[in-house]
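Hi team, as promised in this morning's meeting, here are the two structures we talked about. I've kept the exact order from the run log so nobody has to guess. The first one is mostly here for context; it's the second one we should focus on when we meet again. Sequence first, then the predicted structure tokens.
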Amino acid sequence: MSLIKCENVSLGYEGKAVVENLNFEVNEGDYLCIVGENGSGKSTLMKTLLGLKNPMSGKISTGDGLKHNEIGYLPQQTVVQKDFPASVKEIVLSGFLNHSGLRPFYNKEEKQIAKDNMDKLGISDLAKHCYRDLSGGQQQRVLLARALCATRKMLLLDEPVAGLDPKVTIEMYELIKGLNDEGITVIMISHDIHAALKYATKILHVSDKSEFYESKEAFCSSEKGKLFATNDGGEK
């Protein structure tokens, strides 16, 4: 079943389009990687999918009862965010804020889900630690656990391995793949074409003439896919 469908969508800012006539859909259980050059509109697209920006034209619809506040989001971190003075547990629990409304506390079920997500991502022993004292890889696991508290259906990840060393990068990719195998739909922006081709089921190449590929095999066999992989240092 289609969770998100984009029809003839154009995106941009200050009245200038950076992406035009974009058409694609994401179904339950998909792992969609969004690739493209810097400045091609990938992050703008993700913010639009989250409902944080409006498309200049076209239509974005959701299905299977999916609401914007039921999408888990892991954005690129800023320097200020990396230095945030809160405990790991507090940050993970904050994933429920969009669901709690005016309620000034977290209920028993939410606390249990947060604990389960910390267990799943191997950070339970860090629950009382200050977030800013953690390594980059540990911080990303915390933010991923937070995103999971916001959703049982879909994760949107914007460069989730940026700045991580190779070993931690592989661990992060494997965690994300494991969540997808459990039924979480994943949409991920990545500059890492090798990871995209290894883990994704679908590829969206964002450019002045964006193209959507129903399978990574279709992307690999396309001229654009061959060129992109070669320029990134990959094999044809």
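And here is the second protein, the one for discussion:
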Amino acid sequence: MKLFVGLGNPGAKYARHRHNVGSMAVERIAERLDLGAWRRRFQGQTVEGNLGGERVLLLKPTTYMNDSGRSVGEAHRFLKIPVGDIYVFHDEIDLAPSKLKVKTGGGNAGHNGLRSITAHIGNDYNRVRIGVGHPGVKEVVPHYVLHDFAKVEYEWLDPLLDAIAESSRFLAHGESDRFLSQVARLIREQETASESKSPSEAPNTKPPSPKSASKPQQKGEGDGSLAGALKKWLTGRPGKE
């Protein structure tokens, strides 16, 4: 069995925050693969299903981000899931928006959720790093990640979450490279499909109306000349009674 963990903070207040993109990812997996209803378990919400022939437990800790390790550790110990079969989906400010990477072990880069998990189960689990971008100034990072995605960001976020869900079976088999390749392919296909639906800008080839085509142009009319301007002005003057 594999364990997919989606990091975030519980409650509607935080649901659309950048810090909750990991939780959003596992929610999309459960939704797209129709894995059923979530239930409370392991200090979180869980749903279990079959991904490409592999059993997978999806877990959203409800312990708040800073204590995610308590929930993950409990599931890890009770189900006896090897640390190498645990995949943690989380936000990554060191990756540009829409970028996706998978790595095993490594540093926590100041991410409190990862730090908590490492404290409870060690550091050799897998991280699915979902890029949300960096605000540019270290001091505003907490405000940035604890804030809703902007409306325009959903133009890349929704396709990415869909691609993650469609490709998650490869993670269930431990094939991180194939997972990343499939996500990239699905996004390219969607971009191509979107471009093909865009209206093409064709030159205006509408023929002139018969009226305008049959009327000969008089000297000084429509040529921008001084004579044309004077003629228009004289024509428009009221006549004497």
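Starting points for discussion:
The mean pLDDT is 86.
The chain has eight helices and seven strands.
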